[in-house]
Write a structure and sequence with these properties.
globular; Nucleoside Triphosphate Pyrophosphohydrolase; alpha+beta; four-stranded antiparallel beta sheet
């Protein structure tokens, strides 16, 4: 799953050590719902606690093994400034211009589908 959200005019992103800058996300663990996983992964990767989850898309990732991710947005409930992080370097907050011009984006952040996902989130946040 992916969590795509905008808070105070900035997108919540994280830097994965291998893939680069991307929206937080991951997979559900055994016995965990996708919604629970979205909340947990966002905390683990960014230190940001989210609420009011809304699933609004499914995103197909074309790679060696094609797979589909559920895409969520929500609201920021809390930001931990000193989180214990897993697999990433923590929260990165970028405005539209910074994100549009970022040269370190993960491969799946660079396609037309991601543009549409961002547009939907912008509408939802309003």
């Amino acid at each position: 799953m992916l969590v795509v959200l905008k808070h105070n005019g900035k997108w919540l992103l994280t830097r994965h050590s291998i893939r680069g800058i991307e929206f937080p996300g991951g997979k559900a663990e055994v016995g965990e719902s996708i919604e629970e996983a979205a909340i947990r992964e966002t905390i683990e990767e960014t230190g940001v606690t989210i609420t009011d989850l809304v699933k609004f898309a499914e995103y197909v990732v074309m790679s060696n093994v094609t797979f589909c991710k559920a895409v969520y947005t929500g609201k920021v409930a809390m930001i931990d400034e000193n989180p214990t992080l897993y697999e990433t370097e923590g929260a990165l907050w970028m405005n539209d211009k910074e994100l549009d011009n970022c040269e370190e984006l993960s491969f799946h952040m660079k396609d037309a589908g991601m543009v549409e996902i961002r547009k939907w989130v912008e509408t939802y946040v309003q």
